[in-house]
Structure formats: structure tokens, C-alpha cells
Amino acid sequence: MSEERKPGEPANEISRRAFLAALTTSAVTATAAALSPLKDVVDLPTLEEFLRLHYKELTPEDKKAILERIAAQVEKDYGVRPNVTDPPPIPGVEFGYALNIGRCIGCRKCVYACAKENNQSRNPQIQYIRVLQMRKGSIDVESAKTDYEGEVPKDGFYYMPVQCHQCRKAPCVKACPVQATWQEPDGIVVIDYNWCIGCRYCMAACPYGARRFNFEKPEIPKDELNPEMGYLSNRPRPKGVVEKCHFCLHRTRKGKYPACVEVCPTGSRKFGNLLDPDSEIANIIKTKRVYVLKEEVGTLPRFYYYFNL
Amino acid sequence: MTQAIKDYAVFVGRCARKTLDGDWRYYLWMTALTAVSLLGLNAYCKQLVAGLTVTGMSDQVSWGLYIANFTFLVGMAAAAVMLVVPVYVYKDETLHDVVIFGELLAVAVIVMCLLFVTADLGRPDRFWHMIPGIGKFNWPISMLSWDVIVLNGYLALNVQISGYLVYMVYLKRKPAKIWYIPFVFIAMFWAISIHTVTAFLYVGLGGRPFWNSAIVAPRFLASAFTAGPGFLILTLQVIRRLSSYKVTDKALFMLRDIVQVSMIINVFLLLCELFKEFYTDSAHVASAKYLFFGLHGHYGLVPWIWTAMVLDSAALILLVLPFSRRLRYLSLACVLAIVGIWIEKGMGMVIPAFIPSPLGEIVEYFPTLNEWLICAGIWGFGMLLYTILLKMTIPVLTGQLTPRESAAMNIESKTVWHGNFRDAA
Which of B14, B122, B405 is closest, CB to CB, to A213? Predict the structure, then answer.
């Protein structure tokens, strides 16, 4: 105001300054009040986390340090020392999945095995597999139900479980603005939970509704935590990032079956290496009636449905 | 060079001081906007602590009001170009004196867009992952990465153009063409691009049939060129009432022509879309059915869209009839059109694509109070910013603020403080 104030300034100039001072004070107070909820923040990223580079730019030492940091954090939060690894894709392997739609009885054992194996939040509930109860004679998903209850299988219905289809032309990978999700050489579409910005464009892009978002901090009971963890798979996720099925890569890259395959009581779920002509999965694709969901979208899934004749 | 920067800083500082001048109505307006912005900030802090769980969004409806507002506002920002084109391409001077207000609107609105996107992020602390060169930008593959570039580029262009032109008026110098003409022409195409890219964000998703339609980009542009100039018609009337800046009726009616034609095209394109959806009546009509008539007993968006349809129709009728040659009716038509388009592009365009979900589930979306507060806060802040930009610029344009610090100016600014700022003229 210096240029406007001259000797012999009128009284209202003083009252104006008092007015502006009062205004400034109340604005500062009001801003402080507005910001007050921030005092309850518990999950601020550390400086190390904040400045971390993209997964593909990490050196082996960086990665080691990060895995160690995650292990320490898990131990602090859950009182369990986890074994956090980052198994690489196996050369010459492309994973594929086949689901026998004629045998599935809709028991949802896979859903719960998956949640347990992959340390999914129990509250709010996050599940990677959704089982659709479909009316016989219809393939219209709109007439399907996912919240069916009671004894299964029900007369007049068949069951179609849906999870991430690990598409060869994955729309979610294209959508991500920061390359936080990408396709690995073994075909698995992975997410780096430390890189995802939580914009949820991938969720809009996915034609199979396979992606889940952590709307709040996930809650897992301490005694139910699975301590065998993979960096790109089942380690506990932070709030505000997207997650989804990753074919249990911390198991499958070590030669085991995914949890859902292992638990299925009807043997409807088949899993293996598409590139191995003698594998069960390759055999199913060759010999059975096979289809993919929403073929018209052109995403070329690695997840097949089949039925026996 | 340093001297030039210093001079410019002095200019900005002196303009900024002008934002303190005003009568009680101005202070009331600014206080109200600040209060609303702070309410929004408070709501956002709550969201930051608890996560997006405080919103009405879900895994099925993963985008809501934030992205709806964002989509609408990108259009508002793009509309500034509709003032520039007649002036610079057709050398029609009618709108010459108001071009700057369109550009300032674009600046304020783009800031709002960026705030809405930030409010929508689950991890705003990782925003730097999106900065080209530093983060890991998925360009040119991801349409969202395009959006980041075009929006920030458009912001920079408009800051440059308006900042330079106003400074030249202040210095009473004729602007050097090299410093604004190229930017003006780039900004013209850029304006179209921001809304086209935003449309492509939706169009490019094969898994969402409701969005996967080539007509979305033209529809977006038509509705943007209705709502944007409509908003300016309202703003310009406020400016000429409250300041000494002259805005001619001719300029307002030229904007009416633009709004009128755009609204006709907008409604026509909407009808084209509706025909395709409902006449074909394929499985893909589900979202449109949910939007207009409800689906399997769920009617969440039906009141919204019919409100929009009524407002749009009323605005269209007013605009095509000679009524709207009277300013009162024109203003009414603009308000109706703006609200109608806000609904049509937000709740009527973003949300229904998620319902039913790709697996056929119907999960409805109802925004929460916290979500509404954040939206109101961003709107309040945007209006605050626009008011500040206008308050900084108008004294320069009316010749009240010049580099000379004469005694006359002091008297003038005091007059402003005593009475309302119209007397200053």
C-alpha cells in the first residue's frame, strides 16, 4: 500500500488497514481449521518411498533394500516376519488358465482361498474372483447374479467365475498414464503398488471388471496373514492403489499352482504353460470346446472357458 | 533481462494490489468464496486421511462427480477459443475487447480441472510419476498422458497470451505480433485438442459401449461451445455493471449467435446418439436405458437426465426464439443451458457407462456430502481465482492502472475504496 499512502493519510486508511489485518487473521485461522483433519494422517509415505524409482529402473541392490523395507514394515504392522521375494518370470513360459464351465458348481471356495492367499482386505472386502450365477440357456451377464446365497448348484443355473483374464492386448496397460501396470514376459499383467497413482483409469478400461481399488486402508487379521509374499503380487497393499489377480505369481513362478486351482473341489480350474505343447492347458485348448469371454472386445485373454461334450 | 523480469513482477504486484479495492459487496463475495473453498479443503483433508471411501464411488462405479466436473470444465476452458476465432481469423473486431476475459476464464477453469483430477487420485502424493522426464510417463499410449500434456500446455498458452497482452496495455505499447499471434493460433487448435483428447479418454475404451462411440468428441465440443460462451455472456454483463469497462451489446449478441448454433448442434448430436442406442436396441443399450428409464428397478440417474433434458430444451427454445434478443431472456437461457449441459456431460455421460458393470451388476452411484463439499470447494476456488484475475486486469484495460505513479491515481484508488468501484470511472 506504500504508493497509496501519503503524509496526512485520512483516518479511514487506518481503519482499512485494521480491517485487512482482521481479515488476514481470520483467513489464517479458518485455513488452519480447514486443514485440521490432517493431524490424523497415519500412512504418510517415507521420503525413501516417496522418491523411489519405477520398478523397471531399480538396480538389484535397490530391489533388495525395498524388499527388506517391506518385510520390516509388515513385521511392524502384523507381528509376523514375512518372506518377501520378487520371483522373475521363467523363460519359455507363458501362463494360461482354463475353466471348465460344465463342472463349476459355484461354491466360491476359489474366492475365499484367493482372498487368504493374496492377503486381500477383509474389511472392506476385496475379492479378485467374482462367480456369476447364470441362467441356463443364456450367456447374458446382465441376467446373472453374483450375490446368490444358499446351497449350490441350483437347478436351472450354471456358474461362470470371472477374474483377471491377463489379456494379450490388455486395455488396462494401455490406459495407465504412469506405466504402473504392465505385462510381464510370462503374460501376467502386474501392478506395482508403489507406483500406482490411483487414477482408476485402468478400472474404467477393463472389460471384465477385474480390478479392485483400495478405497481405504486394507484390513487383514494378523493371524490370517500369508507370510509368503511377492513384491508384484500379494504383499499388503497401501490405501489408494489398484490391485487384481496376478495368477499367484509368487507361487506359479516357483512351480506351484495358483491357490484357486489348488482349492477347487471339482477340478474345474486348469493352469499351465501355453508354450509347452504337452501341458494340460495346451491339450485342453487343442481338444475341448473353448471360448473366451467378450471375444468381440478383442483383448485376446489368456483365460479360457471350456466344456466337455 | 533481469530488469524486464523485475518490471513484470512490479506490474503483477501492482495489479495484485488492485484485488484489495472494492466495496462491501465485493468483500462479501470474496469472503463467501473463500469460505466455500475452505469447506472444500476441509472435506478434501478428510478424504486424504480416510481414503476415497468417503466418496460414493465403488469398484463398479470407479469414477464419479470429480471426473464428471472435470469433463464439463475442460469444455468450458476450450470455449475461450470461440472468442478468439472471429477476432483473429475473420478479423471481426466485435469481440476484440472481450477476448482477454475468455482467456482468463480458460486459465481459471484449467486450474479447476487440475484440482478435480487431483481430488480424484488415490495417491496424490505420487503426482510426480506423471511429470514427463522425471516420472514414468506412458506417452503416447495412454490417453490420460495426452490429457496431462494438453491441459498443462493450454494453461501455459493462455497465461502467456493474456499475461503479455495485458502487460502491453499497461505499458501503453503496441503488442509485438511475434509474442502473441503464434500463441493465439496454436491455442486455437490446442483448445479443440483439449476437449477432443478428453473425449478420446472415454471413446478409446472398447469395454464400455456407452462411451465407445465416435460421436462423443463432436458432442463434447458442441456442448462446450454452448456452455463456455454462455458463461461469458453472464460474466460480461457482471463486468460492465460493476466496472467502467465497456462491453457492447453487439459483443453479447455475437456470443448469443455462437451459443445458439452450438446448442442446436449439441441437441442434434444428442438425438443422433439416442437414435443409435434405442433403435438398434442391442445389448449395448443397457447404460442408456438405465440413464433414461432405469434398469431392473434401479432409477438413480433418471431424475438427473430428465432435468437436463428439460433445461436443455428450454434453453434451446429460448435461444432460437427472438425472445433471447433481450438480455434478460438470453441470460436465463444461458443459465439453463449451463446447468443442463453440466448434468448431461457429468452425471449423464460419465456415470452411466459404469452401470451396469461389465459383468452385468447394477451398483448405483450416489455422491456423498463430502464429495459434494469438495466439488463446491473447487468451484468456489475457481470463481475466486477468476474474480482475482478480472480484478487485476480490468484496471489496466480501463487505463486506471498505468506505470506512472501520479497523484491522480492515488485519488482514484481512494475513490474506489470509498464508494463502489464504478465511481472510479
Answer: B122
Which pLDDT tens digit goes with each residue over A7-32? 555 567 678 888 889 888 998 999 99
Q: How many Å apart are CA B266 and CA B341, to the nearest integer?
A: 9
Domains of chain A by start residue, with CATH: 95-307 (3.30.70.20)
- A159 contacts on B by Cβ (under 8 Å): none
Helix, strand, coil percentages (3-state) for chain B, rounded to 5, are 75, 0, 25
Residue B137 to residue A177, Cβ atoms within 8 A: yes
Contact across the interface for B122 and A140, Cβ inside 8 Å = no
CB contact residues (below 8 A), chain A span 22-81, against chain B? 23, 27, 30-31, 33-38, 40-42, 44-45, 50, 54, 56-57
Q: Is the dihedral of CA A43, A45, A46, A48 positive or negative?
A: positive
Task: Indicate which CATH number applies to the domain containing B34.
Answer: 1.20.1630.10
Residue B60 lies in a domain: yes
Supply the range of the domain harboring residue B214.
2-418
- The Cα-based distances of A155 to A109, A143, A244, B214 in angstroms read 20, 16, 31, 43
Distances in whole angstroms, Cα of residue B296 to Cα of each of A2, A250, B291, B362:
69, 41, 12, 8
Q: What are the cell numbers at B266?
A: 449439441
Residue bearing cell 453472464 = B234
Indicate the number of domains in chain B. Answer: 1
Give B-chain residues touching A297 at CB under 8 angstroms. Answer: 206-207
B337 within a domain of the structure (yes/no): yes
Whether B292 is in a domain gets the answer: yes
Q: Specify the DSSP element, H or E, that contains B389.
A: helix B369-397
Q: How far apart are CA A187 and CA A183, in angstroms?
A: 6
The minimal CB distance from B358 to the residues A36, A54, A208 is found for A208
Closest CB from B48, B123, B357 relative to A197: B123
Q: Of the candidates B69, B28, B58, which has an alpha carbon nearest to the alpha carbon of residue B341? A: B69
Q: What is the pLDDT of residues A222-248, one digit of tens each?
A: 999 999 999 999 999 999 999 999 999
Q: Is the peptide bond before B358 cis (omega within 30 degrees of 0)?
A: no
Q: Give B-chain residues touching A198 at CB under 8 angstroms.
A: 52, 121-123, 126
Residue-wise pLDDT tens digits, B288-323: 999 999 999 999 999 999 999 999 999 999 999 998
Dist. CA A266–CA B303, nearest whole Å:
47
DSSP structure string for B177-195: GGGTHHHHHHHHHHHHHHH
How many CA within 13 A on the CB side of residue B163? 15
In a domain, B107, yes or no: yes
Query: Is residue B324's pLDDT more than 50?
Result: yes
Query: For A194, which residue in chain B has the nearest alpha carbon?
Result: B126
Whose grid coordinates read 480447514?
A34
Three-state SS sequence of chain A: CHHHCCCCCCHHHHHHHHHHHHHHHHHHHHHHHHHHHHHHCCCCCCHHHHHCCCHHHCCHHHHHHHHHHHHHHHHHHHCCCCEEECCCCCCCCCEEEEEECCCCCCCCHHHHHHHHHCCCCECCECCCCEEEEEECCCCCHHHCECCCCCCCCCCCEEEEEECCCCCCCCHHHHHCCCCCEEECCCCCEEECCCCCCCCCHHHHHCCCCCCEECCCCCCCCHHHCCCEEECCCCCCCCCCCEECCCCCHHHHCCCCCCHHHHHCCCCCEEEEECCCCCCHHHHHHHHCEEECCCHHHCCCCCEEEEECC
pTM confidence score: 0.93
Give the residue on B whose Cα is nearest the Cα of A297: B206
Question: Cα separation of B40 and B38, whole Å?
Answer: 5
**How far is Cα A209 from Cα A202, in angstroms, rounded to an integer?**
10
Which of A105, A73, A96, A27 has the alpha carbon at shortest distance from A304? A96
Among A146, A128, A92, residue whose Cα is nearest residue A247: A128
